[in-house]
User: Fold these one by one.
Assistant:
Number 1:
Amino acid sequence: MTTYSLALIGFGGVNRALAELIRDHSGRFEALGFDLKVVAITDLGLGSLVQAEGIDLAHVLALPRGASFEGMPGGSAEPRNEEVIRNSTADIVVEATFTSPVDGEPAVSHVRWALEAGKHVVTTNKGPAALYGEELSSLARKHGVRFEFEGAVMSGTPVLRLARQMLAGLEVKGVQGILNGTSNYVLGQMETGLSLGQAVADAQELGYAEADPTADIGGSDVRLKVAILANEVLGADLKPEDVTTTGIQDITPDDVVRALGEGRRWKLIGQATRLEDGSVEATVSPLALPAGHPLAGISGATNAVAFDTDLLGPVTVSGPGAGRTETAYALLSDIIAVDASTKGSVHA
Ligand code: HSE
């Protein structure tokens, strides 16, 4: 059985949820044909912990709030990200830090250091893929390792790898999606007459919203995901700023209730379409969809993507687009892809 050693960079909700999966579901990994061992954890608050023989996850998961790795064997109060990423014995760097959507940092640097050190990277951060996807993928190829980021779009719900593998024989003419759970939840709440502000406060309470919910409401979160989809699915070379973006901030409860009365539902739609000349146009904007549209019935915080294909027509995938365990599953699916690639399986 192959054992992969992991370095967890960032120990917030998502990497903690991955650590819980590893702690609680060893049978699941056995069935997959590999075993996972965490050899390093770094975190802004906790510092860093490096134990090549494997960290006791039950112990670190039980540390009280405000604790530090300082004083533990291999522990330090400093995160020491670069040193850990470059020099630890990890085969796979699991990047899930709190990262700026504007410049993608610190995730972009973490990904670069790991790839340069010949380590596979799996990440849920959107910034590296949306801002530097081609550069980082080519750096990964140069070093013979994988750069996987399934969780950047729709958390663990399969979208990117599904498109790359299962839709490979189709001509995909375009892709449309509800890619932000907060805005979809908010629009749904507004159908019941709630104001935008009240609905956003509810979404924050439920943990869907970004730390800065203007990224959800103003469309910039979707813009990053559309850039990734356009590049990965349609082979475009778009930057987030190439995606014309309008959020839902100017939609009123009146608009939403009136549309509902006419059989239409307002949704924040991210889309990328191949034009006649072969170029790809990408937008984010609120649209009042007719009832028969494949995305009209997607309610609450659920996300969905509809691929417009030549041989199958529309193919729609829906599922969670956020959540700690749901996003941790994306990391596991990326690790499965790394395993498949190192074993030469078709699932890579
Ligand atoms: N805030 C995002 C959402 C989370 O509401 O969908 C995932 O990017």
Note: The longest strand covers residues 264-274.
Number 2:
Amino acid sequence: MNTVRVSRIAEKKIKQGICILDGVDFQKQNLTNTVVKLVSEQGKFLGTAYLSQQNKGVGWLVSRAAIELNQTFFEDVLHQAKLKRQTFHDSEWTTAYRVFNQDGDGFGGLSIDLYNDYAVFSWYNPFVYSIKERIVDAFRVVYPEIQGAYEKIRFKGVDYDSAHLYGQEAPSTFTIFENGVAYKVFLNDGLMTGIFLDQHEVRASLVDGLATGKSLLNMFSYTAAFSVAAAMGGARQTTSVDLAKRSRELSQAHFDANGLEMDHHQLVVMDVFDYFKYAKRHGLYFDVIVLDPPSFARNKKQTFSVAKDYHKLIAQSLDILSPAGIIIASTNASNVSLERFKKEIEKGFVGVKHQYLANYRLPSDFVYNKNDESSNYLKVFTIQVQK
Ligand code: SAH
């Protein structure tokens, strides 16, 4: 095994329990896609890691001990992770959830989700991908009940992004449940599956009555999952806005799965900023507005980033929000801290009185690294306007 010396800063981070390895913390070295022994500048052993280029970071610390990444290691971490999800495992109301979440479960660069009897593996870098057989073999020992699996490639350099991985093939679309609400998912069509599982609790708040009797505007709606949750929770009316044409049929599928008629549910294919203008011009008002944009988006006219532009979404929502209306402000941008996100939100509220009702972070199946705040990337605030 190769030995890699790390800077004092990296040593400090490792001792704090941060697992993601940052390129700037390493002295120049050419190793990649391999397991290494990390040592301090003085040559003191710090832990076992692997190096591999991914979207964020150049590798992961796996353990502070000298270990081997063999099948037994993966069986152990998968088994421990399974024990932590017992309540999800036992639930009849929620059948799709995360069973392995990167460094939160002791091995960064890998996540695994269950959708009924099928698993979806996400590989975040070439090294994890190169040892996938070992990981899958371990998984099949720990989860003999799972019928089949798919894989998602979340790094550059492989010429496909989704494929069947083992076992029985899932139907091209099928129904999963979350808090008793049905959603239609697809496991082998690009990187997305029709639902973002990390929003379990926010959808639960809508099912549980946050929008009962109310109208709801769902911006950046993708498959309109928030709208469907609200409709099942008794919302009077929902409007879902997304730029992608395909969002319409995918949203329709979620509504159909619950036997919801579309009379009071509208699916709009439009840029959200155009919709804000449209709604204002037509004097439309909404009791609840959900704002859950991608961290970064670029279209022909403009770029949008949560870090710099989120306040615009708040400000424009205020123009079309009913008195005492509620904004659900959400972001999954890991580079934007809770404090920074709140600052952006406050910038949008200038002079408008408001009250924070609830704050959601990652749900309990998305076990994050308690020593690395940025791994708890989801930030959602439910805010009531007083006017
Ligand atoms: N809120 C969704 C997930 C949003 S994913 C959910 O809970 O499932 C981001 C979505 O934003 C994508 O579907 C993308 O098509 C859409 N999008 C990106 N830029 C947009 C824009 N300017 N206007 C409308 N939709 C946009």
Note: Residues 196, 199, 220-223, 225-226, 241-244, 247, 271-272, 292, 294, 297, 299 surround S-adenosyl-L-homocysteine (CB under 6 Å).
